[in-house]
Amino acid sequence: MASIEELVVQPPQSATWQVHLDRSMWVGGVRGLMLQALHPLAMRGVWQNSNFQDDPFGRLRRTADFVGRVTFGSPQEADEIGRRVRDIHRRLRVTDPDTGRVHRVDDPELLLWVHCAEVSSYLEVARRGGLGLTERQADRYLREQRASAAYVGLHLDDVPGSCAELDAYVKQVRPSLRVTEEAASTVRFLLWPRLPQELRLLSPGKPAYFPFGALCYYTLPEWARRMYGVLPEVPQATVTAGLKAFRLGLNSLPEHLHDRAFMPSTREMLHGARQRLGAAGYDVSKGLKGLTDPRRWPAALAA
Fold it and tell me: Which residue intervals define the domain ER-bound oxygenase mpaB/mpaB'/Rubber oxygenase catalytic in the entry (predicted)?
């Protein structure tokens, strides 16, 4: 029988599984994109090298694929997507229209902001939505996510590994953040996105998306909402209540229905993860999400 380390990159008993299996991740993902967009050079790197402005939902699904593979996939799957991302970033350049300088997309400064904006959003939204993580578990999550940062080319020691370190990093970066034309357009896209071709059948229900986009926006830090100024302020207690209701609703969906939101390749990877974990003695009758319950782990781990 294979060892647990050979089966998954982050095991079910990790803080990462607690956060990444929570359906509030969809809110956290969009919030993360909105936060990332406030870094002028990082935003222009996306704008100049992708079709984000035409398919922001596709960008979110590709991010979900990367996060899924380095969380639930095999070490080989995680290494493969890490190499793929690093190879793509290595070839890309971004031109700063303010200075005329050309920068590498894999500049550690840009990669670090993108990583921190993403993982801080996942963690903040999940905890605010009701996932009961202690401060110690939250710190553990950020330490575990250093491994995810390494897959895109960052050095572990350069990545915040606790809530205090993350707060200090954001405080340091904030003076360099601003709302560029690209950032403003990004928020508008995320509040009213263009659906990918395979989801066009959902177009009649598109107006129902706006409350979701607004929820993502309102979970941003107050300083970020003040910078954007896109929507009028509402009581944050209302935002928290909406987030808890969204989380409760999505967490009640059967896994096979929820997973339809992912790309086919992501669904195939998740199917492989369930098979590997089942063969290792985990009870996967309730899917991967069921493995947040220690009673479904092998006896040696649950003890």
Answer: 17-233
Residues sharing a CB contact under 8 Å with residue 128, sequence separation 6 or more, in sequence order: 219, 240, 243
Residue 206 inside a domain? The answer is: yes
Q: Give the confidence band of 209 by pLDDT, cuts at 50, 70, 90.
A: confident
Residue 199 lies in a domain: yes
Give CA–CA dist 18/14, Å, rounded. Answer: 7
Q: Which amino acid is at 44?
A: R
Return d(Cα 74, Cα 125) in angstroms, integer.
27
Residue 218 lies in a domain: yes
Considering only CA atoms, which of 164, 292, 216, 295 is closest in space to residue 56?
Answer: 216
Range of the domain at 239: 4-291
Percent of the chain with pLDDT over 90: 74
Say which residues have a Cβ less than 8 Å from residue 106's Cβ, sequence separation at least 6: 86, 89, 90, 92, 152, 153
